[in-house]
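User: I'm putting together a small comparison set for a docking exercise, and I want a reference complex before I start. The sequence is below, and the ligand is DGJ. Could you produce the 3D structure with the ligand included, as structure tokens?
Assistant: Of course. I'll restate your input first, then give the structure tokens for the complex.
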Amino acid sequence: MIRSALTTAIAVCVAMPASAEPPRLVKRGAATQLTVQGRPMLLIAGELGNSSASSAAYMAPHWAKLRAMHLNTVLAPVSWELIEPKEGAFDWSSVDSLIQGARANHLKLVFLWFGAWKNSMSTYAPSWVKRDQARFPRAQQPDGQSVDILSAFGAETLKADQRAFSALLTHIKQVDDKQNTVLMTQVENEIGMLPVARDYGPLAEARFGEPVPAALVDYLVQHRATLVPEMKRMWADRGARTQGSWTDLFGPGDAATEVFTAWYYARFADALAASGKAAYAMPMYVNVALNRPGRAPGEYPSGGPLPHLIDIWKAGAPHLDLLAPDIYFPNFVEIVNRYKRPDNPLFVPEGNNFDRPDVPANAFYAFGKLDAIGFGPFSIESGDDKPGALGSAYAVLEQLSPSILSAQGTGRMSAFKPRALYDETVVYEPVVETIGDYRFTVSFADIQRPTATPETATYCGTIIQIAPEEYLIAGQGITVTFQPVGDGPELAGIDSDWEGSFDATGNWVPGRLLNGDQTHQGRHVRLPAGQFTIQRVKLYRYR
Ligand code: DGJ
């Protein structure tokens, strides 16, 4: 009897597809990785322009081009108006054609749910929502004028958006739970109130008159030591009050108003994510439209998951796995460092437009320095058929993926690019970092031509330790010198330096053995500018 029960249990286990669980986020050391069918994956990605995914014919020629650029994942909008043109009647053709196009080209997908909000506005909501202002109220300005933005306080709006979103997740589960073509979903797109800091409609007014919810206060109290500096100033330094109005707790004017907006947007997005996950529990995130310095909330989308509001979103939306920055500003390094946190793995869904020259360097930095789970520039299908610099960078990142994944979260890897400031000033100083038993100095200006040129801003690289004295060094336009750290002999030399590549099965295929002029007679490792390459370098110590 016991034996036959055991046999049945084994039979059930064997019959279960290995991929029965949705993709999920898994901690690995200090990093968090996206695991698909039990294996970690880097999302070497790109996001489609907004309207491309609405037409299978438009997309048809693009899929193969994206794969040829070495993308493994495409971020594609799913629009509410296309999947639910009549209330309660769902049409999955746009979703299914994306899944088919991706599968046929060995690509994965991240779906972007363009539901109640897309870039603040509500233009992707179906006609039956747009036209029924009584049931689906709009946000209002102080003079009562409504805007083309659904109010976050409309109970019917949340219910309808939840129903559509959970129908989408149910459908994905039905058609994709074995293949896991769809890896994550983005909840709405760049949420935030315009052109004023909050909704002034009657529902919003009533809520603004209530005390700050206890759930938010509890979070702030519990996380007091780790609040972002702006939230410390806004709440903790003003007395860390635990009861009172929004203004009592967060200060007068825009400050309290924007926190209020962020909290209720976060609660809406959380409810949406919760209902989606109840249908199919894949990772979910929101993306953020960043603000320009000196602008007031409302001039930029107020209350989005901005750097100064991360705590509010973490408190209000525990069902979201991460907050993801869309970065169209030059100060990429500063921004991504704010979104890489123990409670927030880094994912960059829109890392500028695909043709910006610093995009490849930003991808290297995100994966190698900050253990990103994914990176994708915007409007990825818009280029011509030549893979270009991004294709060259992605080809190398694709080859390095197993090494990057095994080094993330372990301290065996770093990545380098010249840091740019918001005003576009580029900081070219060499970067010094210790990886394993060697200290590396990475310079961006050409040693033969030490003054920085505009190209210098695109130079970048990653160093991955693969054995005690062995490193993969990849990128373009960098010069790397090295010194031993710790006790023992004072100097380091190059034992061997091979250029090469990894084949499709992950085996290293050596090319030239670099020496002589290529290593400046053993003084440095140099990755030439203009093409992304990999070198496998063994170091040694001598006196
Ligand atoms: C950010 C948005 O998230 C995208 O959908 C798109 O509108 C781009 N901006 C355009 O730059």
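The chain is about 30% helix and 25% strand. The first helix runs from residue 2 to 15.
User: Thanks, that's exactly what I needed.
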